[in-house]
């Protein structure tokens, strides 16, 4: 056991899942959760997934914690970190689960206590649901968790956090924050933006009713609606904080779509075929990776 | 039983699924399948899903069939219909399963025998796999099947075909061909084009490797790869035959995406939030519809 006492700040989908997994996999002795939402605190208490719940100030828990995981909405991660800073125990590891890393690392650069080890993180796992009830212990099982420690971070702290995530069932990768943000813009942020757009475009069609859209959604549309049902606030923040990478991906996507559109207009079947054939291989590789 | 003898032309995913379902649900006495692919015929024979299999010419089967369902790739539907025309039994119902309807109706307009009842159809059901082995009897269960009979079509023929599809477990809706093509452009064709584009854009990123794309696909990308693994030939044909509706949808989509892109660039969080919030309702309605 690398960390005896764990403090989770923000006990929603991700935070409560970490609490459940840490307990189930015996990754710490004591689990505290702090959440500013009264309803969330009530629910966390009822679920019995923490040894102590703080509604609002968490300084007394922070002073005891060997590992603090920030699981608040991403827009509040930096402020939450700075507010807790004075209370943290010397030598504690501070991490987070935010979906964008460069922005947070920049916001905290040079503002952290020297005796605290900050190792930013991002578990690539989630659902379209929010809140403590939505969490479950298996969420991180065989999912990647990316850590983006700044240069010079204490190696033991990084190793301990890697061991913790592996203990929850995750696979762990260490990456540069800006690389993380570019990879995620490709595999997560652009897909979400596209899904939101597509569902919106369909809703706005004057000649096709929403009833028809619902009725005939099995033709492909349905898969997009699950992604487009994700938390709007979280995704607004993701796009605004990972702006550069997102905009680059959107531009490339529009270019590629425009090229396919042109091929359709000019009956260039070969061009369409070439493009549609090359995407199958990735699916096969993803399914193969599942088997490993 | 409305139809004693059934001929399925093209025994791939859709055709073989119809054969399986018609047998399982006792919707006809005799099932013949014709397929130009030798491998498919061999597989159909081995699977034992037909009472007779024709490799190539199906005129002898066509002469006996009360219902003929064309399940070939969509680009060949019109030619296949015209080739079979002389052999068909007087009074037979001729239908198809093609994903685009306006194009086929136009291609056959005025060319059909007067004693044949042509009722175009499209089951909104499928998977990303092809071939006889990929089929299964439950494919149409609780899925919509749209029929687009031209004005003046014999009403008994339409009623019989509706009863047949309902017998396979489908829900049936009758629609105008051009309305069908617009609804499908929205709920199926645009989603497929977008999925192909998105997966292609990700593959082409120089700064993100395909290995990384596969590894971190759980963040949203994964769902797109299933759709983008659909049959390239079939989808090329869908876009080229449903060109007008597809191009209109692509233009609307690009407009909407460009507006969101602009909101990201100018930090217009409210605009993003409004757009992301409105898409959740459709998901809820789709899940509600599942329960019915
Ligand atoms: N959901 C995913 O798929 C996913 C995946 C990977 C990473 N993440 C990241 O995980 C983080 C949390 O996401 P989530 O889906 O778990 O959200 P969630 O279910 O909405 O939970 C967040 C919880 O934190 C509370 N909170 C807000 N501000 C706080 C503060 N200053 N101190 C303590 N608690 C606070 C919220 O209360 P209120 O409701 O009152 O605000 C809420 O109960 C985000 O940074 C997100 O980027 C999410
Ligand atoms: N897949 C879906 O999700 C889906 C959903 C709804 C509707 N549809 C429609 O269903 C139709 C069939 O799709 P599918 O997915 O079942 O395709 P499939 O699995 O590829 O099967 C088509 C079969 O028809 C054969 N064939 C080609 N030309 C023929 C001809 N002239 N006479 C007899 N057989 C012929 C093909 O042989 P070869 O391999 O030698 O060409 C193949 O065995 C298409 O029109 C499509 O638009 C598909």
Automatic annotation (TrEMBL), chains A, B:
EC number(s) per entry: 1.3.1.12
GO biological process: tyrosine biosynthetic process
All residue ranges annotated as the Prephenate/arogenate dehydrogenase domain in the record: 4-292
PROSITE patterns linked to this entry: PDH_ADH
Associated pathway: Amino-acid biosynthesis; L-tyrosine biosynthesis; (4-hydroxyphenyl)pyruvate from prephenate (NAD(+) route): step 1/1
Keywords: Amino-acid biosynthesis, Aromatic amino acid biosynthesis, NAD, Oxidoreductase, Tyrosine biosynthesis
Molecular-function GO terms, alphabetical: NAD+ binding; prephenate dehydrogenase (NAD+) activity; prephenate dehydrogenase (NADP+) activity
Name this protein carries in UniProt: prephenate dehydrogenase
Organism expressing this protein natively: Litorimonas cladophorae
Gene: tyrC
């Amino acid at each position: 056991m690398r960390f005896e006492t764990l403090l989770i700040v923000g006990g929603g989908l991700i935070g409560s899942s970490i609490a459940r997994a840490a307990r189930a996999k015996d990754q710490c002795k004591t689990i505290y959760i702090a959440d500013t939402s009264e309803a969330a605190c009530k629910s966390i208490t009822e679920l019995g997934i923490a040894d102590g719940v703080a509604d609002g100030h968490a300084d007394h828990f922070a002073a005891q914690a060997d590992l603090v995981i920030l699981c608040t909405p991403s827009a509040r991660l930096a402020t939450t970190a700075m507010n807790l800073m004075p209370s943290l125990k010397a030598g504690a590891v501070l991490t987070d689960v935010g979906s964008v890393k460069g922005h947070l690392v920049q916001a905290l650069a040079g503002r952290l206590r020297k005796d605290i080890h900050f190792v930013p993180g991002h578990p690539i796992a989630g659902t379209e649901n929010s809140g403590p009830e939505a969490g479950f212990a298996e969420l991180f099982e065989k999912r990647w968790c990316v850590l983006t420690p700044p240069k010079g971070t204490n190696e033991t702290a990084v190793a301990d956090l890697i061991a913790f995530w592996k203990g929850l069932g995750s696979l762990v990768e260490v990456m540069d924050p800006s690389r993380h943000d570019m990879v995620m813009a490709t595999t997560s942020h652009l897909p979400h933006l596209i899904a939101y757009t597509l569902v919106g475009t369909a809703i706005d069609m004057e000649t096709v009713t929403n009833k028809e859209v619902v009725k005939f959604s099995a033709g492909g549309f349905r898969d997009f609606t699950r992604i487009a049902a994700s938390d709007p606030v979280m995704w607004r923040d993701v796009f605004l904080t990972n702006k550069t990478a997102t905009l680059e991906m959107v531009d490339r996507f529009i270019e590629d779509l425009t090229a396919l559109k042109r091929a359709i207009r000019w009956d260039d079947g070969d061009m369409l075929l070439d493009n549609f054939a090359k995407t199958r291989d990735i699916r096969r590789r993803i399914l193969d990776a599942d088997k490993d």
